[in-house]
Amino acid sequence: MLKLLMIMAVLSFNSVHAAIDTYEFKDADKQARFHELTADLRCPKCQNQNLADSNSEIAQDLRQKVYEMLDADQSDSDIVDFMVARYGEFVLYEPRFSLQNSILWLGPFALLIVGLFVVLFLVRSRSKNSKIDSAEVELDTQQQKRLKQVLNKGKK
Amino acid sequence: MPRLLLFIPLALFSILILFLWKGLSIDPRELPSALIDKPFPAFKVEALLSPERKLTTADIVGKPVLINVWATWCPSCRQEHEQLLRIAQENKIAIIGLNYKDERTAATQWLTQLGNPYQFNIYDESGMLGLDLGVYGAPETYLLDAQGIIRHRHVGVVTEQTWQELQAIIKSWEKL
Amino acid sequence: MIPELGEYALILALGFSVILAIVPLYGAASLKTIWMEYAKPLAKAQFFFMAISFACLGYAFGQDDFSVQYVANHSNSQLPIQFKLSAVWGGHEGSLLLWALILSGWTLAVSLFSRGLPLDMLARVLGVMGIIATGFISFLLWTSSPFLRYLPRYPRDGADLNPLLQDFGLIVHPPLLYMGYVGFSVAFAFAIAALLSGRLDAAWARWSRPWTNVAWAFLGGGITLGSWWAYYELGWGGWWFWDPVENASLMPWLVGTALMHSLAVTEKRGVFKSWTLLLAIFAFSLSLLGTFLVRSGVLTSVHAFASDPERGFFILVLLVLTIGGSLTLYAFKAPNVKSESSFGWLSREMLLLINNVFLMVMAVTVLLGTLYPLLIDALGSGKISVGPPYFNALFVPIMGLLVVSLGFSSVARWRNTSLESVKQQLMLPGIISLASGLIFPFLYGDGFNFRVFIGISLSMWIITTVFREFKGKFRSTTSIAEKLKQLSPSYYGMMLAHVGVAVTAIGITLVSVYSEERDMRMAPGDTMELADYQFKFLGTKSVKGANFVADQGTIEISLDGESVVTLYPQKRRYNVKKSMMTEASIDPGLFRDLYLALGEPLADGAWAVRVHYKPYVRWLWLGGLLMALGGIVTVFDRRYRKNDTQKQGVANA
User: Fold this and answer.
1) Complex ipTM, two decimals?
2) What is the CATH number of the domain that holds A29?
């Protein structure tokens, strides 16, 4: 508990204001990629902020690194791999698609399919019922005679 | 619809509770090092007290060492300093300092005033070595084996308990 | 003295909750009228003492009583009075007291507005709410009392409220949100009461509906307000971050939406009773789960309260007892006999089922994404993060599907609709929607944009189909005014809410695609251009606020040479906490916001300045408000206000 408090004391160094750097790219495409990368990478020590929004030292350093790597014509996956190699998958806001994360990515879709099937099944069984409800049951003359007999018996 | 199906929500909920209960004993902000069982990143950085000396990985391999990431702007580093001095006195393992994003004069003054538990200090002024190491906030302490492979990372103040844990890890290597 | 009175009042409130939890339920089970009659006065007493307790805490804040720990930790003598009072719910203990107060408020409301309710039902509903109150007030008294003191030595002045919270948003957002969260306890209590009594006819659905709709409206309003607050307060111009605490509020809202619709069908057609019961339990369970997630320290969030595993454990026990108990009751006593009513493929019932499937998948997606890091960590497989890229990728498409089905539901009839009739009614709306979607990006933007096409088409789909249905009502009437009066508030509410969805969708689409931003170094006299506007920076000057000092920038904005507005963003430094904060300056507009924030001071009087151009961002929140308004309007329906014991007799037969 004490340890936790001490860690928090150190780590709560970030102040509460917007992180505004003035990185200017010559290339509009690189500007957009910088935007996206810093939005999708997580600040390793903040309380759930991405690199773009955090003002902590480590976030500033990492933004600088992203800027340098983009300037050096590195690809997006190079930059992401660089970050993951040092900080682990924790820094990815978009979890990688792996066996471990398969439930995460496929679960909702699977649930949707299951749900739609359930609806299908429900509607089918109820439509069948309605066919029976509304279908007229025709009695032929013999059945009608028997029906009268049964009813008369009951009256006695 | 069989009665059994109606128990599914309860079953799912029970599983969720187990996870939440386990979650109470986990610290979500503690980040394990991504470099465990990987070699210490390559570097070529000046030493703090003798700037003409350039340190490289060669200087930290050979025997198990503790690499302690510290800075004068970090209040918790001040707190753990005494413990580090004690560990240095016991002379069981060398402590190498990684002075992270600091000022040379301030750092030198600090060591003079408070004592120097470090064999030498890597002066990572830019913080780039720290970045390669996956440092996210001082103080951090890394345990390296004789081959320079990172075996353990402790984030936060090093206490007597931490020292016991580290010693236990080192002992477990000697058994192998 | 007063804080101790507050604690004592809280203990008395607990006493009444315990009695409320036991006596009326026993009375209902053994049909002892006197015991059941106790429910109403107990509810009143519980509220009375909760109100006193809350007032005592408010008084402590108002009087700067820093001997009270909670006041010392969250307030300061320099704090303006409105923030001193709203700081009451600025931290864990006080907000929990607010939670309990609101719960007792809803309990009181149920006891006052239930004329048509049979006594045993009312007794059970209030009894269940008493059980929940017992849990929460116990939690307060055992682990989180806001009345603890720093004695004998207490601080001369307080530690001040977090600057981010020193804002109008704090005054309104938490109370609205809690009204919603806690409000779902009423639907929950009705469901439990129905299960306990075994009386699972459609009547409980009718009683539940107004309570559910109001809670849903409050929650939606609270979420909307939270989004707006984050937008102007945090300086990044963002309006939703998929942060765990935000998700904790969204999940009950999604399930609440499903519940609202499902209740409508259960009331009108008597079908899906078991499912609706389950939804009622789910909605409140998610509220409770949200409480756990936010206060236990299990997840990391900028919004989370200071956490403590001991408190987390207590809430976990509350969860197990409440949710576990209710789900067990459900498993044993929910009806598993299929109701007689049948319906076809193209019917309102079917579309309702589809609506529920989509909403539930959306809720599960959010739940899964929020809890996945915890699950992986608990299994020892390391630390991962799940953020906006995941949620946006999965949530938005399903929302799109939901909107498509919304259009169909406007023209579908109960039981069955002919395909011909649907095709004929939806043909024109479909064409208009697709055409609008195609044309809009050309008119507004730089040419075709797929996301805008989808977003605008779907929004217009809602608007045209809602209008189609509305027009259809007048097909066989001569007097328009008469017909307008004839249409029920339920119907108007539904229209408002559905149009609100469309408005929000337009806002989300356009602000996501067409917003622009730039960060630039600006020295006094520099100009910058963004989205056809010119921004001229005129330097900064020092200003003083009530409890802060700030550098205030002056920026003149013009469009085509004509002056539009001058904005004054600030970089504040609060006196007590010594923390820095950016106060963005916004020029709001119905069709665009201009958003300015100051970053760091650079050399020579220059500053890092961020400029945002945000088109249609206000539509986001307007839509949310329309939805909430729609929910409120439905409650004015005559059938909820009439004292119809007659109808009940029929229903119970």
Assistant:
1) 0.89
2) 1.10.8.640
